[in-house]
């Protein structure tokens, strides 16, 4: 019964958050039994010379072996991905997926320059950063130790990562990409002469969006029957 309740609760999670979280967990489970991290990491030579294109995806899905670091990252991925999808991206799955694609492309390029092999933590940092900038007045309790406004959260996470002995470059790349997205999507369009530059492709909207889920959707008035 508890398992059924957990499954039912998970099905209530928004689509993109549910799919990404499940993919991360399943990838880690596969590494325990079937795969090696060496089959998943980002390697440009293997991607473009050996056509192992799945590495462009799996670099964002593997958060390391089961342990504190994995559960810590999954907690933040699930929480802030869900809050974005239920908040500023509510009814806009295509725009949310396009943010993932835009961020993924930039992080892959920066990860190549920085010789990074796994970029899931960078994607998590981007999600946290975008949420924090769109929720500037929300106060965050950081594990009961610190209390601060949301825009400080990405930097607190980077400091915590450094205390765990992880490279801060991965978090920094996620913050930089998150800021680029936030600037292009939320800041520049509202400047004099500015406009929205990140336009979600129509095929994504046709594939993913239900117009009636859009908070700005207004149904057409029904035709009145003739008397």
UniProtKB/TrEMBL annotation:
Membrane-topology descriptor: Multi-pass membrane protein
Keyword Kinase (UniProt): no
Gene Ontology CC annotation, any one: endoplasmic reticulum membrane
Keyword Cytoplasm found: no
A single GO BP: ERAD pathway
Signal sequence coordinates: none
Annotated transmembrane regions: 20-41, 53-76, 96-119, 163-184
InterPro entries reported in the protein's UniProt record: DER1, Rhomboid-like_sf
Keyword field: Endoplasmic reticulum, Membrane, Transmembrane, Transmembrane helix
Locations listed in the record: Endoplasmic reticulum membrane
Pfam name, any one: DER1
Source taxon at top rank: Eukaryota
Function: Functional component of endoplasmic reticulum-associated degradation (ERAD) for misfolded lumenal proteins. May act by forming a channel that allows the retrotranslocation of misfolded proteins into the cytosol where they are ubiquitinated and degraded by the proteasome.
Family note: Belongs to the derlin family.
Protein's name according to its UniProt entry: Derlin
Organism whose genome encodes this protein: Mesocricetus auratus (Golden hamster)
């Amino acid at each position: 019964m508890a398992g059924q309740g957990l499954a039912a609760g998970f099905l209530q999670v928004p689509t993109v958050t549910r799919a990404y979280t499940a993919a991360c967990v399943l990838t880690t489970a596969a590494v325990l039994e079937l795969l090696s991290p060496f089959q998943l990491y980002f390697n440009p030579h293997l991607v473009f010379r050996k056509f192992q294109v799945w590495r462009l995806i799996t670099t964002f899905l593997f958060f390391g072996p089961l342990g504190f670091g994995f559960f810590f990252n999954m907690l933040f991925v699930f929480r802030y991905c869900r809050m974005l999808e239920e908040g500023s991206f509510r009814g806009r799955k295509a725009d949310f997926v396009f943010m993932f694609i835009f961020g993924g492309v930039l992080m892959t390029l920066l990860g190549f320059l920085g010789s990074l092999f796994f970029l899931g933590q960078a994607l998590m940092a981007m999600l946290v950063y975008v949420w924090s900038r769109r929720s500037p007045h929300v106060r965050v309790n950081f594990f009961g130790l610190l209390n601060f406004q949301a825009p400080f959260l990405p930097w607190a996470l980077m400091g915590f990562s450094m205390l765990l002995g992880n490279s801060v470059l991965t978090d920094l790349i996620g913050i930089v990409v998150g800021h680029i997205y936030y600037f292009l999507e939320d800041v520049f369009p509202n400047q004099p002469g500015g406009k929205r530059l990140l336009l979600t492709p129509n095929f994504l909207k046709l594939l993913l969006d239900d117009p009636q889920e859009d908070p700005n959707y207004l149904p057409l008035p029904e035709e009145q029957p003739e008397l």
